Please model this.
Amino acid sequence: MAPRVQLFVTCLIDGFSPQVGDAVVNVLERAGVTVEFPFDQTCCGQPPFNAGFHDESRRIVHHMLDVLDATEGPIVVPSGSCADMMIHHAPDLVAADAVRFAQAARVAARVREFTTFLVEDLGLTDVGARLEARAAYHPSCHGFRNLGIREEPERLLDAVEGVSRCELADADECCGFGGLFSVEMPDVSAAMMSRKLNAIEQSGADLLVGVDVGCLMHLEGGLRRRGASHVRIRHIAEVLAGTPEDER
Amino acid sequence: MTAPVSFLGRVQRDRAAGRVTALDIGARRLTERRLAAAAEYPAMEQMRDAARAIRLDVLANLDRYLGRFADAVERTGGHVFWAADGDEANDHIARLAVDRGVRTAVKSKSMVTEEIELNAALAAAGVDVTETDLGEFIVQLSGDRPSHIIAPVLHRTRHEIGELFADELGVGYTDDPVRLNAIARRHLRGIFLNADMGISGANFGVAETGGVCLVTNEGNGRLTTTAPRIHVAVMGMERLVPTMADLAVMLEVLARSATGQRMSVYTNIVTGPRRPGDPDGPDEVHVVILDNGRSEVLGGDAAEILACIRCGACLNVCPVYRASGGHAYDSVYSGPVGAVLTPSLDGLADHADLPHASSLCGACKEACPVRIDIPEMLLTLRAEVAAVGLAPDWLRRGVRLYAEAATRPGLWRALLATGGLLGRARSSWLDSLPLHGAGWTDHRQFPPPATRSFHQRWKERTRGA
Model:
């Protein structure tokens, strides 16, 4: 029987980069997975949580839990940061309520970051994609450090026909996005971004790939502010799905 | 936010003055050295685990270890003074100095005496105090403040220091570090020999022996604690290890994490005053054990920050610290550990923005030799900031509106559809956003909303199927 998954698409993909959501669905369906999309989903609650507003975050988490706990199967999340919120912080946030905590633990146990799901759960590295590109990979911090996503995205990229890889200097250094941090501490965030953009432009890559659209949106915004660049920025799902340029 | 000049304001000031570049370079070099030292030491990870266990045991049983330590200090002939806060510590040390006719004092590097501003208190009591750690000496000579807990002048270049020495010490200009070192050494030697009192901090106090361990690379710690007739050690009350064997574990990780050295050049353990037959050493040893907010921290959510051994690894690896400079933290404790420790010790009111001075990237937690979960503590402090009403109003209002939308799926989809209309009207990336959104667009373009959200795309997809 074909595996069936629930897609939690994340608020940024929903509102700003929906082509990434399409790409996730395409890659999964090509791999024989049936994708369902719980239609009442909104956000994982991370933005208010990181800003310190636990009551507001808890309300969103309750909603997220109610929507997802009514479904079955792995919950695929194309963001290391949101997956980290759902796995590690949501249970803590509702721990005072035993029923909610059990619900959060059930949901957390089902959450799978997209590349981890492909490589670990489906045992897939070659998804049959091809793209002529010199690609550098930016490991976003929450996925990298909090979920231990280390090799999965790079193995998927290496298996894409036509992709050659470029090393990114200080790859595991934060790009400066940090959610609301980028708005609250703009000069600090921009200084961090500037360093990352320099590393990207000096890497020889014409494509930067990541697993979190927040960091990618921030970096692309910075790159666009600099003017013309030979570097394109894409979520890994777009590369794996072969999303055409005019779909964006 | 509530402070007159915010963290961000200080960052802007110091970046504009070009005061951040040298610190960034220095901090990166220290990180490279730490990683190299860890890589050549196969037991590093086990030692980190052992060091963490020792420090957590100390915190869990601090009352017992403090009692044991104080007894041991007194057994060796030393005196213990319990200071509830900085004023008590300063008053005690100043009174001691006056009582013993102390005119000059030398100090080895000590962040805890910076924390309580001991130098000012001693100056008011008529004592001439000289910092003898090269970095602290430079800080004192130029009226500057430390930017790093182990490398106080990481923010300054050797050219600036050359000019400072030429101006203040009457020597010819040089920016050769070896010659600068020699100049300071010559200047300080006479001061050491004439000092009546030596003041040190404590890297660790050893509960079983009453010993105070100091690590330095310049030997000034040893001179400070042995040459003058009185030695005063000021120690944060949490800085204990139970036994000498435990101290050995801490020393395995401290220098490696701090400077990438296997061991500091000088490791001294001062245990009591000079005994009969000793060739040198002070006649009197006083250990001032400082609370200054620590016992309150110990009972709170950020208690584990007291496990910190002040190696500076979290500063060196922190991209926010390196981009902001140490002075932005407005405290002797800067970087990730400062962002937790300063508001914890000194209260949130004047430091409400410090917990927000982090992208939560987690590099600090990865680097910390005793594995303190600093990002988790920053999140907890942010919640306290919001709970006591110290968060900015725009953030509070924005978050509330967002929570309304994110808990009502119909409203959520309606907003996405509205965004789609805007996206159709304006399909290129935006140059500017209004209000606090300008924080984003001052530095980057902002993407237009998707013309068709994923929700809409999914609906069309299933309708087509």
The first strand of chain B starts at residue 79 and ends at 83. Chain B touches chain A through 64 residues (CB under 8 Å). The mean pLDDT of chain B is 96.
